[in-house]
Design goal:
The protein has about 160 residues and is an alpha+beta fold. The chain has 2 domains: about 40 residues; about 110 residues, Glutaredoxin (3-Layer(aba) Sandwich). About 20% of the residues have low confidence. Helix 2 crosses helix 6. About 55% of the residues lie in helices and about 20% in strands. The chain has a 4-stranded mixed sheet.
Length: about 160
């Protein structure tokens, strides 16, 4: 039996294309399955990120504000953290890879910043400046953070 080179090449590329199609279908199926299992919000969803920004130099007041911020968010919003509609990120803005935050959020000192994202894009942000006035009043601090985070989360429930 004699094989035509052209026929062999066509057959090779046909099988290669079929294999590629099978791989694409498998990856798509895995991606859809993973989305169903993921705790991250779906594309097109609303997410709130609470950033606590600090520097290399950290006084007792700064540490207290960070501690209260973490506790307020973790204790006040465990379901939202688990679902991925709320994230808490602790960031040293003096590290070279994080310096862009200084300009982006107009940071002048350690800060608790809330960021609203829709479809993965930032839509608004706010600096919770009162944390500096409330750090000696734990209950007032927590209530302030709860109220502000809840306002941001509610924006995702409306739209």
């Amino acid at each position: 039996m004699r094989y035509n080179t052209r026929m062999i090449v066509k057959c090779f590329w046909g099988r290669f294309a079929a294999l590629g199609l099978v791989v694409c279908m498998a990856l798509t199926t895995l991606h859809i399955f993973a989305q169903g299992q993921s705790s991250a919000p779906e594309t097109g969803s609303h997410k709130v990120i609470a950033y606590y920004f600090h520097t290399d130099t950290r006084c007792s007041t700064c540490r207290k504000i960070e501690e209260y911020s973490k506790r307020a968010i973790k204790e006040g919003f465990p379901d939202e953290l688990k679902k991925g509609t709320l994230e808490l990120r602790i960031v040293n803005y003096q590290k070279p890879e994080n310096r862009h935050f200084i300009k982006e959020y107009k940071l002048v000192t350690k800060s608790l910043i809330l960021v609203s994202q829709v479809n993965g894009k930032q839509t608004e942000w706010t600096n919770l400046k009162l944390v500096w006035e409330l750090y000696k009043k734990e209950e007032a601090f927590f209530n302030y953070v709860y109220k502000e985070v809840e306002k941001y989360l509610a924006k995702g429930r409306i739209g």
